[in-house]
Amino acid sequence: MLKPTPTPTRELVSLDGLWRFAVDGPELERPWSGRLPGDREAPVPSSYNDLFLDPAVRDHVGWAWYQREVRVPRGWRGERVVLRLESATHHGRVYVDDVLVAEHIGGYTPFEADITNHVEAGASFRLTVGVDNELTPATLPPGHVVTTEDGRRRQIYHHDFYNYAGLARSVWLYSTPLEHIRDITVVTDVDGDAGRVGYQVDAATDSEVRVSLRDAEGQRVAESGGATGTLTVPDVVLWQPGAAYLYTLTAEVVRDGAVVDSYSLPVGVRTVEVRGQEFLINGEPFYFTGFGKHEDTPVRGKGHDPAYLVHDFELLDWIGANSFRTSHYPYAEEVLEYADRHGIVVIDETAAVGLNLGVAGGMTARNPPLTFSEEGLGVQMRHTHAQHLRELIQRDKNHPSVVMWCIANEPASQEEGAYEYFEPLANLARELDPSRPITYTAWLMANADNDRVASLFDVIGINRYYGWYIDNGDLSSAEAHLEADIRSWIEKYDRPVMMTEYGADTFAGLHSLFDMPWSEEYQVAYFQMHHRVFDRFPGFVGEHVWNFADFRTTTAVHRVDGNKKGIFARDRRPKSAAFELRRRWRGLEGRKPSE
């Protein structure tokens, strides 16, 4: 499923803007069958939760409805007409007039519908999209709904970020020829000074396919015929971290000598490999510096915003970060495209967060079953997880910035049943994409002695909060515990280990002459301690701070106005730790600290 883009044979219409909007209620019976009641309008893309001043909307659990009129361009007669939604959090239903044309579960990957037989070129139709934000034991992320004493439905979930909902990414109407390219897969390699671009073109019919590759100046450097093949690029310019170089691959479907369909795809030639305790890009050791991030901004929630996209990447460049993890779900594809063009390395993560009922039990005073048992999150969840993994890899497989798949964040990997749950998923990821390593992140209570799944993965990511959740305010004890913890992972597993989360909540503007938790000075000292420890281990391959910026969470005693572990405030103003990280990361300049 290719991302919609205008080509010589395809056209694209954005459906972003203000849509009619209503949340589900007794008065809404078959909301797709006519005009939505009321006068509310909601912007697409954005989450709907923070837009309005009505708590019934912000705290709504269940279906919400978007609607607008759409006119099909008159020049599309005889063309295939497709409707595509980049996401619908977490369950989407799409109606063209009164007809259900698409349904999708999973809030962070795209889906589409061929509506050619339901619309006419030059005519308009009523487009209604339902979005259900309810989380259950069978969804990713998981959750459950309780009914309060006054009859309200309340969503409970196991992850620590706000459950924003709605149409947070773009909606498109696009055309293709009836005889068209459905998908393209690209895998790159290097042989001496030459690049190898393996390709596979999936066409809707048994047609002639030809493929060409052009360099950044538009000069043709390779061409081939056939739906499957390899292009050789002499004197290849590699895609490098911090120095992106993109070729353009163009695939064409040809009938009787005429081009019937054409699609162009940016291609970065680079290699990724794990060798012993090293992570290699283009055969050179790579040390990750950067963040776990979130799609989270004021008012918009998880709504994709190009202005924040550009500014956030400017901050990554300013601070000296070379990478980030898409915690804890696939980000908008525009984010990866920007990373492709600017040489930022990405660890791409599924929405598998909250697979840890022990944490949920501690947060809700329940006594939960084992996470991966049939009473907990068993076979049904693994099927859901597998589908999320398929859709993530299908969407992002061609991005050179993506160097690793992260299958899950902080699962209960120390529990019985964890290996049996993750082994089929690890195998599936390698089957879908043998070219990239896979990883996961181990939570604080999963250590080198009790973790059951680390052997399944190429890189071990550990999330550690010594000095915050453990040894709070005692950085001396935290340093000893952190060093012992990292040493145990490196000594047991002959593979790369990196810190995928470490951080301390900090109120911007709170200062202290002492090591007082929540102060900006404590956050700086916290990071200095961690970096001393990291630099003692040559087998350590990276540091991702939690988090890039403060973000919204549910209301809780330990979460005043959200999670405050950001190096930048939610509005992107820097805290003191930003300057400490800038000093360190710009000093590394891509080399490992032990070098």
TrEMBL record:
GO molecular function per UniProt: beta-glucuronidase activity
Residue ranges of every copy of the Glycosyl hydrolases family 2 sugar binding domain listed in the record: 13-177
Keywords: Glycosidase, Hydrolase
A Pfam family per the record: Glyco_hydro_2_C
SUPFAM superfamilies given in the database record: (Trans)glycosidases, beta-Galactosidase/glucuronidase domain, Galactose-binding domain-like
InterPro entries associated with the record: Beta-gal/glucu_dom_sf, Galactose-bd-like_sf, GH, Glyco_hydro_2, Glyco_hydro_2_cat, Glyco_hydro_2_CS, Glyco_hydro_2_N, Ig-like_fold
Every Glycoside hydrolase family 2 immunoglobulin-like beta-sandwich domain range: 180-270
EC number: 3.2.1.31
Record has Hydrolase as a keyword: yes
Iron in keyword set: no
Gene3D superfamilies: Galactose-binding domain-like, Glycosidases, Immunoglobulins
Ranges for domain Glycoside hydrolase family 2 catalytic: 272-587
Highest taxon of source: Bacteria
Entry-linked PANTHER family: BETA-GLUCURONIDASE (PTHR10066:SF67)
Family to which the UniProt record says this protein belongs: Belongs to the glycosyl hydrolase 2 family.
Protein name: Beta-glucuronidase
Protein source organism: Prauserella endophytica
